[in-house]
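Field log, afternoon session.

UNIT: design team B
ACTIVITY: writing a sequence onto a fixed backbone
BACKBONE:
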């Protein structure tokens, strides 16, 4: 007789089924690559499972090694992968922050027009380029001092200001920045002002005045 402590043996789910369960939990619109599934399975096994799911159109391959759990769209067939979803994937696989860089960071605050086809990001680690049918994204390595220990918003503001540069910075940029960030983000930025380049510190210090208050005094 079986011991009362024995449990019935359940069939082991296929790797593909286990991966798909995680994808479904994340929801449609989520973006995946082999690294995002961790080291529970071999890299080759995960790559092959993702390829099979793409062949069945459960997932859509949007770039080399990158897959989208698609959202149906009445006109486009599927809705484009969003930068927010790709950013979430990058943070998950890198285990640390990935921030907008260069012109992409500057566009976040209205300093330059947004480029809807090419995006630049940065993080500690190796570089990577993701090219999809809708846009391309380049992730470049960045020195740890520009990102480690900084709030992501602080790190991105510093990169946006670096892109404009000290000689080109003017009051219009300061006003745009003050109105594009929340009071809470401004407070965090000011608390970490010592970690920014010297020329930025006076500008950042002015952000301590909430944008709503500043607007009321003009």
């Amino acid at each position: 007789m079986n011991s009362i402590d024995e449990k019935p043996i359940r069939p082991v789910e296929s790797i593909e089924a286990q991966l798909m369960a995680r994808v479904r939990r994340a929801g449609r619109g989520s973006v995946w690559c082999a690294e995002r599934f961790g080291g529970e399975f071999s890299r080759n096994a995960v790559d092959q499972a993702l390829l099979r799911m793409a062949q069945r159109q459960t997932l859509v391959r949007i770039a080399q090694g990158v897959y989208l759990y698609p959202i149906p769209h009445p006109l486009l067939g599927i809705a484009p992968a969003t930068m927010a979803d790709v950013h979430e994937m990058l943070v998950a696989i890198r285990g640390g922050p990935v921030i907008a860089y260069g012109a992409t960071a500057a566009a976040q605050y209205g300093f330059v027009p947004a480029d809807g086809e090419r995006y630049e990001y940065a993080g500690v680690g190796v570089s990577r380029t993701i090219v999809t049918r809708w846009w391309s994204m380049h992730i470049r390595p960045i020195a740890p001092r520009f990102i480690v220990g900084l709030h992501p918003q602080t790190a991105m503001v510093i990169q946006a200001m670096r892109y404009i540069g000290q000689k080109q910075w003017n009051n219009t940029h300061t006003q745009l920045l003050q109105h594009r960030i929340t009071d809470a983000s401004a407070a965090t930025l000011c608390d970490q002002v010592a970690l920014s380049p010297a020329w930025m510190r006076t500008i950042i210090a002015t952000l301590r005045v909430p944008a709503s208050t500043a607007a009321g005094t003009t």
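LOG NOTE: Strands lie at 31-32, 60-63, 66-68, 72-73, 77-78, 99-100, 118-123, 128-131, 136-141.
NEXT ACTIVITY: expression trials, pending approval
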